[in-house]
Write a structure and sequence with these properties.
The complex is a heterodimer of chains A (586) and B (235).
Chain A (H helix, E strand, L loop, with lengths): L1 E2 L24 H6 L4 H31 L9 H37 L7 H20 L30 H29 L12 H33 L9 E2 L2 E2 L7 H34 L7 H14 L15 H29 L8 H23 L2 H7 L3 H31 L5 H28 L16 H34 L63
Chain B lengths: L1 H20 L10 E2 L15 H28 L12 H25 L2 H31 L8 H32 L4 H29 L4 H11 L1
Helix pairs in contact in B: 1-2, 2-5, 2-6, 3-4, 3-6, 4-5, 5-6
């Protein structure tokens, strides 16, 4: 090993943050409700996101029941069905995945992992959560307004989003857009914190290349989100103007029920550009934190350093940059210059290169590792498999020639549920099993965890593998029922019933998980400070759960990278980042 | 979209790339164990966190307005576009906003030199000018409305109201921060703390002035021809 003296690169952070700069809660309300401590905010974000996620889960059951048993549920009208798919998609992508990865894990892990006492702007951080909660409440409120939530699909494409045939045309679309605008404002506040904390509040010795990949992932995703969410903001504001004030940004001249509407000349394509300029980076806003977290889970539970750390960092940055120049691959069927199609197909397929590097590195990390099949590890492994499976169909869909016939079929639904639905969700589960002991001081029950894992993992495949086949048959997505179609064989109907059964079972398995989380809070095995024997800083806090200010009297000093597992000659099979090197004999 | 990518994402990407290039990303951390007592620099900038936070926020605002401008250019290509005349009062408003920026710059220089009374004066005058600008914008809206250029009559009008309104909202947010800073001065906080706040206000003001000049250029009709040329160059 080389001992080096790094002289360069900027200022050296102080050993101590002055105590007066820290925020001190004075009452119960400021400690648990209007709290500025990033750890409490993280828990608030997580609970809110998981709760609204449960609503989306129930909606998915209703969608599946309708698809499997069309004309058996008189309570579900075609309009209801469209509302269910819209709100299900929107909640899952934005209010659950984005909020949980960045607001939940970001808030909890960034300060702890980089050795900071808290986020740099705690007050703004607190406001961020409350604006997010408000956004969720506005979304939920749309269920109770006349006409219900919008049924325009999660992409909210005008003109149909604001035409009177679409469910939720009166209030739903207004509240949806308002809720998204609020979410973006709230996220921007949080995002400023995550970025500046990583930039400025790292403890002594924590160079960028010593950061755990989790922090790299969340940091990159936040930068993406800060630059991409404005596109959705612009789209939503202009959509609101069209809906409420009668402007024609997106609305072309439309004849409705024999009557000319007052709109004219607007460009629906403009909205699609804006939406997907946000929408594609959004995929990576969800995927990149998952990449980071899964790298840490694999290294810790295989007791081996991550293979190709530098490549992993570069790949994350390259994926983030590329994600801004691929958006139009969602618009192959909207009509575009063939050269543009060629350009966007090329950039889309190029993303496969850094992504493949990451997959190889995960697999090579496992190679001859001391693999512990703990619950977090099981979920991490299932992520790799699922992400590869979902990614391969992405290679199909990235080509315009293949995409055009498959567009708007269940094949697309199966693809994105595998790659950005199940894969990140597996990481979220793995991460919860991994960090729950740090957050609460108790372990989650392992038996229940394994049960939860196997049902969810096998169930996910039972749901989405057949769905690819149904899509290849040509069954379109978003259809309330198929009726009698010559090209849909009887087997597709049987498969639909099978998928629905699997979906119901997987859904109920999540109740086991919820029970486990609540039960373990008081009855779980005490975890100790570092149950996984991990190297990263969050496991080295003086208290578990970490106290206010995270680090007792003095901030930790970092001497090494985050992956010193099974170092030859070391006493234990892991060396914490803040463990000083053994002084050489004089 | 090409406008957003060219004028905002490429510069921001260049800044990020430059910053990353300073960060020893080619280091081999697995070979490097620090020695006791030797702490490497983390690459953190010596600027205060709030300044960097403002910088990141301005990047987000730039992205927002660039996307609006992209939409503006894309929508402009449809045949029903009819540019409306810019009210004369906008010239007056522009002048007022420039004066506002100058006043805040004066306050910032005063803060750097430690002249507290100059700071207070500069902030208040700057705030008043900014407020006058907002009133002037409302006045412009009223004039346009009176002349029959309503929001929904034409997309050109809609973009005018939307962009000026959004710019005004950003300025209004800035005014809140400015009032808090003035309050700090009045309460007689120590100079070091006030200095940072004044500096941040001044940066934000200059940014909003620059943004307004860009928007004003784009929204006035005599630029229409120029915009057509730009668009042809870009596409």
């Amino acid at each position: 090993m080389v001992d080096i003296a790094i002289g360069a690169a900027g200022t050296i952070p102080p050993a101590e943050v002055k105590d007066v700069e820290l925020y001190h809660p004075k009452s119960w309300v400021t400690k648990y409700v209007f709290c500025q401590d990033a750890k409490v905010i993280a828990i608030q974000y997580s609970i809110t996101a998981l709760s609204i996620g449960l609503v989306a889960l129930v909606l998915s059951w209703l969608i599946r029941l309708q698809l499997a048993f069309p004309s058996s549920f008189s309570a579900i009208s075609p309009g209801d069905y469209l509302q269910f798919i819209t709100v299900h998609g929107m909640i899952m992508v934005i209010y659950l995945l984005t909020a949980l990865f960045l607001g939940g894990f970001g808030n909890y892990l960034i300060p702890l992992m980089v050795g900071a006492r808290d986020m740099v702007f705690p007050y703004v951080n607190m406001v961020s959560y409350w604006v997010y909660l408000l956004a969720v409440l506005v979304l939920v409120a749309s269920f109770f307004m006349p006409g219900g939530p919008t049924g325009s699909g999660w992409t909210l494409y005008p003109p149909q989003a604001i035409l009177s045939g679409t469910p939720g045309r009166d209030w739903g679309i207004i509240l949806m857009a308002a809720s998204l605008i609020l979410f973006i404002i709230g996220f921007t506040m949080g995002g400023l914190n995550y970025v500046v904390t990583v930039l400025q509040a790292r403890t002594r010795g924590m160079t960028l290349m010593r950061m755990p990949l989790t922090v790299w992932g969340i940091f990159t995703a936040t930068v993406l989100a800060l630059l991409a969410f404005p596109a959705l903001f612009v789209g939503c504001v202009m959509l609101l103007f069209d809906r409420i004030l009668g402007t024609s940004f997106f609305m072309p001249a439309v004849v409705e029920m024999g009557e000319h509407l007052k709109y004219r000349g607007g460009s629906p394509l403009l909205f699609q550009h804006l939406f997907w300029f946000f929408g594609h980076p959004e995929v990576y806003i969800v995927a990149v934190p998952a990449f980071g977290i899964v790298s840490d889970l694999i290294a810790t539970h295989a007791r081996k350093n991550i293979f190709g750390y530098r490549m992993m960092v570069w790949a994350i940055v390259v994926i983030g940059a590329l994600s801004f120049v691929v958006w139009a691959h969602h618009m192959y069927v909207s009509g575009m210059n063939p050269y543009f199609g060629f350009f966007f197909a090329a950039t889309t397929l190029i993303i496969a290169i850094p992504t493949a590097i990451k997959v190889y590195n995960w697999v090579l990390t496992l190679w001859r590792g001391d693999i512990h099949l703990t619950v977090p590890m099981l979920f991490a492994l299932s992520f790799i498999v699922t992400f590869v499976n979902g990614g391969l169909t992405g290679l199909f869909l990235g080509n315009p020639v293949v995409d055009v016939p498959l567009s708007d079929t269940m094949f697309v639904v199966a693809h994105f549920h595998m790659v950005m639905g199940m894969a990140p969700i597996f990481v979220i589960f793995g991460a919860i099993y991994h960090w729950y002991p740090k957050v609460t001081g108790r372990m989650l029950n392992e038996m229940l965890g394994k049960f939860h894992f196997w049902v969810t993992f096998l169930g996910a495949y039972a749901i989405y593998f057949p769905m690819h086949y149904i899509g290849l048959l040509g069954v379109p997505r978003r259809y309330f029922e198929m009726g009698d179609m010559a090209f849909v064989p009887q087997s597709a109907t049987t498969l639909n019933i099978f998928i629905t059964m699997a979906a119901l079972i997987v859904g109920f398995a999540q109740m086991v998980f919820l029970f486990n989380m609540i039960w373990s809070l008081s009855k779980g095995k005490p975890a100790g400070s570092n149950p996984w024997r991990a190297t990263t800083l969050e496991w080295q806090t003086p208290e578990t759960p970490p106290g206010h200010g995270n680090w007792g009297k003095e901030l930790p000093v970092v001497y090494r990278w985050a992956y010193d597992y099974s170092v030859p000659g070391a006493k234990e099979d892991f060396v914490p980042q803040n463990q000083p090197p053994v002084p050489r004999a004089a | 979209m090409s406008i957003t990518i060219l004028f905002v994402l490429v510069p921001i990407g260049a800044i990020i790339a430059w910053w990353l290039s300073q960060q020893r990303l080619t280091a081999k951390p697995w070979l490097e164990v620090g020695a006791i007592g030797e702490v490497p620099g983390t690459g953190a900038l010596s600027l205060p966190a709030a300044t960097i936070g403002l910088g990141v926020f301005l990047a987000v605002v730039s992205s927002l307005f660039a996307l609006f401008v992209s939409a503006y250019f894309m929508r402009m290509q449809v045949a029903d576009w009819a540019q409306m005349p810019a009210p004369k009062v906008l010239w007056f408003n522009t002048g007022v906003l420039i004066l506002s920026s100058v006043a805040l710059q004066y306050a910032q220089v005063a803060a750097r030199r430690g002249r507290m009374e100059g700071v207070g004066d500069g902030l208040i005058v700057g705030g008043l000018f900014a407020f006058t600008f907002l009133i002037g914008q409302l006045f412009a809206w009223r004039q346009l409305n009176a002349a029959g250029y309503f929001l929904a009559t034409n997309p050109a009008n809609a973009f005018f109201y939307l962009l000026t309104g959004l710019h005004g909202l950003h300025l209004l947010g800035g005014l809140v921060a400015l009032v808090l800073t003035i309050d700090k001065v009045w309460r007689g906080l120590e100079l070091a703390q006030v200095r940072l706040s004044v500096k941040l206000c001044a940066i934000y003001w200059h940014y909003l002035l620059l943004l307004w000049l860009v928007l004003f250029t784009l929204l006035t009709p005599w630029v229409g021809d120029f915009a057509v040329i730009c668009r042809q160059l870009l596409s």
